[in-house]
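yo

u said u wanted the structure for the complex thing, so here. seqs first:
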Amino acid sequence: MQTLLRTIYDDVKPLVGQGKVADYIPALASVNPHQFGIAIYSNQGELFQIGDADVPFSIQSISKVFSLTLAIKHYGADMWQRVGREPSGLPFNSLVQLEYENGIPRNPFINAGAIVVSDMNQSRFASPHYAMREFVRRLSGNPDLKTDQVVADSEYEFRHRNAAMAYLMQSYGNFENSVEEVLKSYFSNCALRMSCVDLAKAFNFLANKGYCSISKEQVISEQEARQVNALMATSGMYDEAGSFAFQVGLPGKSGVGGGIVAIVPNRFSICVWSPALNKVGNSSAGVAALESMTKHIGWSVY
Amino acid sequence: MQTLLRTIYDDVKPLVGQGKVADYIPALASVNPHQFGIAIYSNQGELFQIGDADVPFSIQSISKVFSLTLAIKHYGADMWQRVGREPSGLPFNSLVQLEYENGIPRNPFINAGAIVVSDMNQSRFASPHYAMREFVRRLSGNPDLKTDQVVADSEYEFRHRNAAMAYLMQSYGNFENSVEEVLKSYFSNCALRMSCVDLAKAFNFLANKGYCSISKEQVISEQEARQVNALMATSGMYDEAGSFAFQVGLPGKSGVGGGIVAIVPNRFSICVWSPALNKVGNSSAGVAALESMTKHIGWSVY
Amino acid sequence: MQTLLRTIYDDVKPLVGQGKVADYIPALASVNPHQFGIAIYSNQGELFQIGDADVPFSIQSISKVFSLTLAIKHYGADMWQRVGREPSGLPFNSLVQLEYENGIPRNPFINAGAIVVSDMNQSRFASPHYAMREFVRRLSGNPDLKTDQVVADSEYEFRHRNAAMAYLMQSYGNFENSVEEVLKSYFSNCALRMSCVDLAKAFNFLANKGYCSISKEQVISEQEARQVNALMATSGMYDEAGSFAFQVGLPGKSGVGGGIVAIVPNRFSICVWSPALNKVGNSSAGVAALESMTKHIGWSVY
Amino acid sequence: MQTLLRTIYDDVKPLVGQGKVADYIPALASVNPHQFGIAIYSNQGELFQIGDADVPFSIQSISKVFSLTLAIKHYGADMWQRVGREPSGLPFNSLVQLEYENGIPRNPFINAGAIVVSDMNQSRFASPHYAMREFVRRLSGNPDLKTDQVVADSEYEFRHRNAAMAYLMQSYGNFENSVEEVLKSYFSNCALRMSCVDLAKAFNFLANKGYCSISKEQVISEQEARQVNALMATSGMYDEAGSFAFQVGLPGKSGVGGGIVAIVPNRFSICVWSPALNKVGNSSAGVAALESMTKHIGWSVY
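structre next:
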């Protein structure tokens, strides 16, 4: 496996830096685009890594999977009354889609859906971000995971579009808490800093029938773990979920920090990271690395 | 397996007839809703069946997978310049989506996409419907498969919405042949009559790395077969693809005739059929049967 | 004229109460639907009135014309960089329209447009609502006009949809002040209480080439007055502007409190009021009364 | 008046040729953009003209007013069950608007609406284009008006988008005849060639309470004439109707051939023509000429 990782790494290295680092907030724009790391964690607890796999980065939308998992643990199947499970189609109609479907977002991985999930967690925890961070520290076995408060504050300052969606959902009665408070928790979750190694470990329960071998806990049931994977497979990669399924064939979730996690059910959890993004906001080198893995190992679930 | 099939059949039997038979054309509206069949075909050539698994029905949108396979055989990866691979979001905006994306339909399983695929096949075959029927006869090993011309004519008579989409694509230059001719081929393909047994056999190549053990041919490459499965997984079940992935976890394709095919990669191809449809147009009993299988056997790919 | 007013009043009286009083906030829902009044004020200072023409009611969206006039006085033609002058089409796409046109609302009479106009006035006045109320007291010659604080507070409590639009405009850079502060001013303006007589007087400057004969001031230029009338003619009646032009043929502006003002250029300003609304939110009896006037007097500008 | 016409002509002359001649079909693209004419016809039968006012050009969408008038003559108020009277908002959503409103176009001046009006006339006349041309010859007093068959054929060849709309309306049951036949009539109407003088005369009945002093006939009732003017005022100028009302203040109808007709109710009918178009498809010099008239003469109806 380590040899294979080296092959893939060398294959993709020339692409690193192609694309554009996220720049909608200054704190993200200053990241060095030439970083690139891969970590693979097996259900047996083996760790394989290469490149900048120990460098922490802003996990951004990858945090949506952790929030979702926390909400599933508490609300179970009831949570699907407030958020759908369907892919979302075009980005341009995110708001009209909320209108058309009476304030129920299409899935928990579009922003509107993740904000509703944050609202669910806000109703349950006194400090939802701390609860989430503790949860992720446990899953990854890394008690030192930190929140980048500069990033969180900067996201909040430019919250307007997300605030618009939250208020629109509130107008349909699909919101329980203060929009401002929920957005603060939501942005803090996005601003968590983790390395490829941290994320490969923290996501292993999804490859392992819901069981985390690091914290020795059944995080969610086997069926629920497969369901989270199914949601990642159909909606985890922004407006590229279909192409990603087509090219890579694994459930995956990306973030604008340049990280992508992917699950090989019953076997491995993977995290690749490189900050430069393609047009739809996924890591260019990250997608290429996962395509290369699929070609070399034939991991597609399909 | 046969015992299991009996359990599932008995589980789901009480649901048969719930919902509504497709009635947008008279020829489909008169089907008896109380029919229900299941067929499973293994990569080793074993056939398991129960109920009305030998009764032919109108395959409708299931034909889109055959047309797509024919187009892939001829055009390979080039075909993706004319049709996308992303899930499509809301049904209400199918036309605005075509406008927004310059006449390129989102995927080959929405009507606009399947019509473009038919246009590709029209450019290639003198008689595209006959070519397609011969192809399917070969895959299923059944030389007697027939087209229901009454259904095909009736669909053509009520072609207006599909004609609107075809003309809109033509206005963007994404159409090569006469709209009327292409629609005739397209509706003839939809009007093919096959049984659960026929379909389970004809779809086996997608479970078997692109190889059809009945006709002894490599239909498409292993990678292409996985890609077709990926497309079914993200876009095969109308506006229920996400829920189907969530609940069943298999690539699937449904038709308004009440049939659903599903693929267990590397192992089985399945066809369930019952004519009464749920709100989004998928067979109610069919979806229930596949959910029951997933629960009993744990076939989810995720 | 007074005889004519009696004829129209008797004609329309049977329709009074048909439709539904606005009930999205409790404070409006409790209004007696059987009230009906008409006031006409001529450029020569003659007042004609009938029915409940002296009863104050919540002017609601009629206030948008006053806010617009204040903004025109200060910003002149520059203001049209931040808000358009085109009719808005379907209500369902108000948010997607803002997205499509980069946060520039179509006209100052849809909510998004009126909120941007309020934002302009917020940048200019320390207390924009008091400035507006003083302005209207002067135009109407009634120093006792009051704001219904219960209505204003209730609107603010249910501000979510308007807040969504304001935040969306802010995400496009078309907002200068705090969303919360601007909405408070906006709702206070809507909650002003005026009678038909007050409104007929306060709007007379639009019939009189921009000159208010009550306050003896040139409020805006003749050209600007005609332009405000043109905006009312194309966009003043929610999703009924076209029908209103077709049936009545006068520039008009309605509010969900049941009031409608209309302008007969160079001659009269009119206000009709009856709280029960038709499907698009205009006073049923009010529209009928204006249609009856047009039929009896031939006041259409077209 | 003739002096005034000279002033306006000299004012606007420097703008002639600015913009872009319609080029979606070759037959229109070859028109010399430097032509410019104005004709004014009074209700008393006086004719004022300047520049290229006798040169025939393709009337294009101006023909929609003639078709509408013919339909009103036959169907009266019943026709409004098949087409609306509201402005249409954004061009990008013409198709989704038809979907949202069940195949009823918003007004008779958008393409979908004009095509439905053509379908009405098709149901009534054996040769709807000849009927229309005879009607216009009578109104203008010019028996030599001709159809440019090259233009009509070319429009038909590029009919795809209009065909898409017609088929979509047919899918909603709002179409009575063959799509192909109706489009042929529709394009022939658009391809009629008339000069400014012809059009000023032919439109005079709308300024003259429905009476044509040339053919000595009451074309439609006074009320109907005002209603047609109201429709032009709210929807006659593509996506510039609001600005045109704001700047010019007259009911108007434009065509991509560069012509614009405008009505001064009870006094004059006007036609200006210059082929170069602004961004929304209205004659640049034509709009400027009408703005200049409004400034010099104060003809705004508002």
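Chain D touches chain B at residues 92-93, 95-96, 99-100, 159-161, 163-168, 170-171 (CB under 8 Å). Residues 111-124 of chain D form the longest helix (14 residues).
cya
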